[in-house]
Amino acid sequence: MEVEKLRKEETLAMRKRLIGQSCRLFYSSDPVKIVRARGQYLFDENGMQYLDCISNVHHVGHCHPSITKAAAAQMDLLNTNTRFLHDNIVMYADRLAATLPDKLCVFYFVNSGSEANDLALRLAQQYTQHEDVIVLDHAYHGHLMSLIDISPYKFRKLAGQKEWVHVAPLPDIYRGIYKENNPDPGKAYADTVKDLIEEVHRKGRKISAFFAESLPSVGGQIILPQGYSAKVAEYVHAAGGVFVADEVQTGFGRVGSHFWAFQLQGEDFCPDIVTMGKPMGNGHPLACVATTAEIAGAFTANGVEYFNTFGGNPVSCAIGLAVLDVIEKEDLRGNAVRVGAHLKGLSTELQSRHDIIGDVRGVGLFVGIELVTNREERTPATKTAAYEEYRICVSTDGPWDNILKFKPPMCFRMKDAEHVVQSIDHILTGYRACSFL
């Protein structure tokens, strides 16, 4: 049966009537109605093409034929829950294990990054028998109540900070308390976590986990200073806690040089728990928690079965396996290195011609351009960052919404990077001209 096609105005009217208004649309003043997609391109109902710079979920490209083929084939054969023995879940876990340090060898499959982070929180608290959690300022870890509680980005707008949650400074060397001129910003920021742990202990409380994105995204496309994670892990372990690396946004080769963003911190660092999500299923709901045998054993020992109806089902795992195949066969990590460097280089060159660009940072296809009204004061240029460029999908983030963030599908090409930077140049040139009028 063919689905009835609605005019854009009808779709928008029905959405306003039927869908909760807190579920917001991109470009709310004039929403784009997307009806199909391929690779890094989106198409509206009139066939207009848009360059997608924000869909890190569609990791290997929208509607990749290898992914849709794998999904359809498995769906036509079998889809059931994980209480039945099946090859796909173990084959997929084995493939994931090959990308991770040896100690991260036990996997729990779920359906979203929020589910993964909620389970990671449970694992940490069960293993340590402690409650308290340290998170980074401006962090976002998901939409469940447990995760809003550990997400300053959300809880500061709602009920506020819980007694068991403690917020460490964001290790932002451009705007934070320790900047790029600090001789060892990694240790300086890590020592703020040490100080926070001591403060928690003075209150008679104990740390279960330090919980952080490997590259804070909502916080502003932040690249953690070298040595930070290893030193934090040292302090957290000494306090009896575990280190949780949230790779929901950054995993699966986005940084190019490594499969996981936490690996940027060096071979001597390994988290105790890793969560993953968005890119895993290329748009299909698939997520996971990887942890150690010791932590998994403590979770099993509580005597309560963990069961997830859809997590790790045969279709999801078939899709996950296909995504891994495409990453390898199409050298998408290599592409992230090459195109990401080109995008960053072009943006840095643009910075030399536009004073409003205060900072360009990133690794692989995880790039941020921070806009400021004054380079000396580093005053956020929030209004300018909000400008919407026609036919290029870019969004902003950071505490002041002044950072243009780029997390495109991994098939993003050199010409796409050039097109984006040319468009930014055009906008900023026009903005500068208007400011002199």
UniProtKB/TrEMBL annotation:
SUPFAM superfamilies according to UniProt: PLP-dependent transferases
Keywords of this entry: Lyase, Pyridoxal phosphate
Pfam families named in the record: Aminotran_3
Signal peptide bounds: none
Keyword presence, Lyase: yes
Lineage: Eukaryota, Metazoa, Chordata, Craniata, Vertebrata
UniProt name for this protein: 5-phosphohydroxy-L-lysine phospho-lyase-like
InterPro entries named among the record's database cross-references: Aminotrans_3, Aminotrans_3_PPA_site, PyrdxlP-dep_Trfase, PyrdxlP-dep_Trfase_major, PyrdxlP-dep_Trfase_small
Source domain of life: Eukaryota
Gene Ontology MF terms: lyase activity; pyridoxal phosphate binding; transaminase activity
GO annotations of cellular component type: mitochondrion
Family recorded in the similarity comment: Belongs to the class-III pyridoxal-phosphate-dependent aminotransferase family.
